[in-house]
Amino acid sequence: MPTVHVDLADRAYQVMVENGLLVRAGEAIAPLHSGKRAAVISDSNVDPHHGDTLIASLTAAGIESTRHIVPAGESSKCFTQLGKLCSELAAERHDRSSFIVALGGGVIGDLAGFVAASFFRGIPFVQIPTTIVAQVDSSVGGKTGINLPEGKNLVGAFHQPSLVLVDPDTLTTLPPREFHEGFAEAIKHAAIRDAAMIGELAALDPDNRQVPAELIARNIAIKARIVEEDELETLGTRALLNFGHTIGHGIEAAVPYGEMLHGEAISLGLRAALFLSKKLSDLPAAKAQEIEDLLKQYHLPVQLPDAITTETVLDRLARDKKFQSGQIRFVLLRDAGDAFLSKDVTIEHLREAIEYLRS
Ligand SMILES: NC(=O)c1ccc[n+]([C@@H]2O[C@H](COP(=O)([O-])OP(=O)(O)OC[C@H]3O[C@@H](n4cnc5c(N)ncnc54)[C@H](O)[C@@H]3O)[C@@H](O)[C@H]2O)c1
Ligand SMILES: O=C(O)C(=O)C[C@@H](O)[C@H](O)[C@H](O)COP(=O)(O)O
Ligand SMILES: [Zn+2]
After folding, report:
1. Model-level ipTM above the cut of 0.90
2. Taking the model in full, what pTM does it have?
3. The domain 3-173: what is its CATH number?
């Protein structure tokens, strides 16, 4: 069973990756938490598939739980759901010895994690990710938060989970679109840190739901090593995980939240970033093509819909956290597996890259 240790001093934790782990979640969680009351936060799609299994496992391990369900989808990463969940926890008389269990995709992980960071000024939380995005990326690293109409993830906190339990079997209930979108984050990891994984992803059948636990763990390890180096994104290393996210976030926020899934927007952002990496850095055209082909193989979008205007994308991305004192910090590739943070990308370059997505 692959386990990845995230080494962050007093905030260190394990990420366990194992088929069938959801049934044993209670056993894994109980020894880590002195409190025996949990608030399970999930969404209206995930709870009917996996909620009962989790609650039964917690109960069997002596953990009493309350159940909190938000509407499925990106639009739930908002102040309304944050406030509602905090009120529900207070009404259920959760206290500082309680902990949260987030059961769902990246939306639930980010939202429930922010509830955990805020309620009573912070209580522990466990991540049980159920999408590819969440299993290879969002459940690890401690970025929690919500969106604003003005842009993605503009309000939030760093709050590391106390444990992450990844059960690849939960991926079998994902609809095809939601299954494929997550591979954009795995392709991102390969592009920035693990060129060999490009070939390995290309060798897999993109429609096979039996995603190898080793592949998920390999992605988690890439992210964990970067987070260990630069937990709060102050040094620049962690910003490399934002490859494809400047334009990607701009596109995701240019339409009503949820209309374009995160991974789909990031696929477009990756293609734009590959274009700029060829133009402004040394990325060989053949490498860029190989990564772009991988996006297509995983049924990810590579063309910007006509209805999304370049000016709207530019407006949304200008509010991104990566803009500091008016300067853009943009992630480019020198080569596959070799990313760096550039200050040479201008608004004109961004405009050109967004237009390129129409070709
Ligand atoms: N914190 C981070 O480091 C980080 C990293 C990457 C992405 N994110 C965030 O994650 C979010 C996207 O996450 P996502 O793509 O997982 O979206 P999501 O959580 O909305 O899940 C996608 C859809 O799949 C459904 N679903 C989830 N698991 C299911 C399952 N096992 N069976 C059936 N249906 C299931 C959900 O209900 C939803 O409709 C974005 O808000 C993004 O900003 C955060
Ligand atoms: O964990 C990180 O760091 C990442 O950048 C991972 C991204 O995939 C993720 O989408 C993250 O939420 C982006 O963070 P943001 O700070 O740019 O909003
Ligand atoms: Zn992302």
Report:
1. yes
2. 0.98
3. 3.40.50.1970
